[in-house]
Design a protein that fits this description.
The structure holds two protein chains of two kinds. By secondary structure, chain A is of the alpha+beta class. Chain A has three helices and six strands, in the order E-E-E-E-H-E-H-H-E. In chain A, a hairpin with a 2-residue loop joins strand 2 and strand 3. Helices cover 18% and strands 23% of the residues of chain B. The chains are: A alpha+beta, B alpha+beta.
Chain lengths: 95, 401
């Protein structure tokens, strides 16, 4: 279950490149290539194996001037998508 | 991702079992050639069809989130890509690497293992070359020369890659008598080398000041020798082009007014149809299958490869042509051209760049190369009908025949 305290890391088979604010992600294991928009790219860059999603959401809220609640909800949902498509994996829970 | 087994002709598809690396597709070669022998090509290993949604490249700003940019799943566009060469420690699904083709995959030959077939040599020149082959037996050289003779290099120039051709016993390979079907090669990479296997051959490329390769085959210039040789060559060319900042792109390329227009897409996207139309209308075709795109001192160039697909072959321009544009090809009900975002262009093109896109040690290089190349030229999504004359396409792209 992915929640605010969840810490994600990028899967080791994933390679990415930022292009014009967006990001191209290549998943070797799944044999898939994804494009994420600028906000998605922000989240992916924050998936560093140390930062809980709550903190990622705080950064998004500050960067894009949206409410903390909305940023957290979106970040959690997007994090779930990243896990689902094999880009990120759950490493643990903070604290 | 769709079940790959449905991509072929279900009525005649061979039993696949659980071997997801081995995929059968209806051969795209003309009927007259379909039983000429199995072809282990990358063409079916790639597929850039969108899976989840249409591209949703949202504008910058807080409205992303207010509009549910992430939460409504618009943050990602997923593109299908190669399932071949899954570069996992065990090959995936608990299978050993190379178990599709090799009876004992753990006994993949080491560099230097196996006797040379003979003392013949052959040097071929095209994008990234010269490519030198040593250790060939006479019949092997004759077969390779018959296929690639137009590219023979007699200049004595220092080779960019040297491949030694060595023997491997036929008993090393699983019997896969499926003439006319297309296989997916198996690849495994590490920081210094890439290893791969196909029908009746295995190969290794080791990277250093120049690429040193080994091509192990059980065949003395007959049967599937040439198919294996060509497949080895494709992989070699892909990696050599990547070293040079270029890319081997699964694409059709047509010359218009001295420049090359490249149309990429997975099998079935209409590359061959477009190329046929172009040729019928008098436009030279470089290839309907694979093209080399590489940086040059001036503009980015496209170069014809010896493995030119169903069209191209020995005909068509040999010289490097200035790249005029790169277009993703889509079948549709009407001719149309729409913009292609930079990130989507990169993703779609990477999906059509075989081998490197499945190599975790070099796919970053592929993305970097492609990104640079795509910045240099126009790109877009070209929707065409089968009946669309190429002249109309050229006019839409702004080309002046």
């Amino acid at each position: 279950m992915i929640g605010p305290a969840t810490i994600l890391g990028l899967c080791r088979d994933v390679r990415f490149r930022s292009v014009g604010g967006e990001m191209v992600l290549l998943s070797q294991q799944r044999g898939e290539i994804l494009v994420v928009n600028e906000v998605g790219a922000h989240v992916v860059r924050a998936v560093d194996g140390r930062t809980p999603l709550a903190a990622v959401a705080e950064r998004i809220a500050a960067e894009y001037q949206v409410s903390a609640e909305r940023a957290l909800a979106d970040a959690l949902k997007f994090a779930g998508q990243l896990v689902e498509v094999g880009i990120a994996e759950v490493l643990g829970e903070a604290g | 991702m769709r079940d790959r087994r449905t991509a072929g002709n279900a009525a005649t598809a061979p039993p696949l079992g659980a071997k997801r690396h081995l995929r059968a597709h209806r051969p795209s070669r003309p009927p007259s050639q379909r039983n000429a022998g199995p072809v282990a090509r990358d063409r079916n290993a790639v597929g850039a069809a969108g899976i989840n949604s249409a591209p949703a490249l949202l504008p910058r700003g807080a409205s992303h989130l207010a509009a549910g940019g992430l939460s409504q799943g618009k943050g990602a566009v997923v593109h299908a890509r190669s399932r071949h060469g899954l570069l996992l420690p065990d090959g995936g699904e608990g299978r050993a690497f190379f178990s599709t083709f090799l009876v004992e995959p753990r006994r993949f030959p080491r560099p230097g293992q196996g006797r040379r077939w003979g003392g013949e040599e052959l040097s071929l020149q095209f994008a990234g070359g010269p490519y030198r082959f040593v250790g060939l037996e006479m019949a092997q050289r004759a077969a390779a020369t018959a296929r690639f003779g137009g590219y023979t290099d007699d200049t004595g120039a220092a080779p960019a890659a040297i491949t030694t051709v060595r023997r491997i016993g036929a008993a090393a390979f699983r019997p896969l008598p499926l003439p006319g079907w297309v296989y997916t090669l198996e690849l495994q990479a590490d920081p210094k080398a890439v290893r791969f296997a196909g029908l009746s051959f295995v190969g290794t490329l080791r990277f250093g000041r120049r690429i040193r390769g080994t091509f192990w085959t059980s065949l003395a210039g007959t049967g599937l020798f040439l198919e294996g040789f060509e497949n080895y060559f494709r992989i070699l060319a892909a990696y050599r082009l990547a070293e040079l900042g270029g890319v081997l792109l699964h694409s059709a390329a047509v010359m218009v007014d001295g420049r090359a227009y490249v149309f990429f897409g997975p099998s079935g996207s209409g590359k061959t149809t477009l190329a046929q139309k172009a040729r019928q209308e008098g436009f030279p075709v470089l290839s309907d299958d694979m093209n080399a795109i590489a940086p040059a001192r001036g503009p980015v160039v496209v170069e014809k490869l010896p493995f030119a697909g169903e069209l191209g072959g020995e005909s068509g321009p040999r010289q490097a042509l200035q790249l005029a544009g790169v277009y993703r090809l889509v079948k549709g009900s009407a001719l149309a051209l729409r913009p292609l975002g930079r990130a989507e262009a990169l993703a779609r093109a990477a999906a059509c760049a075989p081998y490197l896109n499945a190599d975790p040690y070099r796919s970053s290089q592929l993305l970097a190369n492609l990104s640079r190349l795509l910045e240099e030229v126009p790109s877009g999504v070209l929707t065409t009908r089968r009946e669309t004359p190429f002249g109309r396409i050229a006019a839409l792209l702004g080309a002046t025949p």
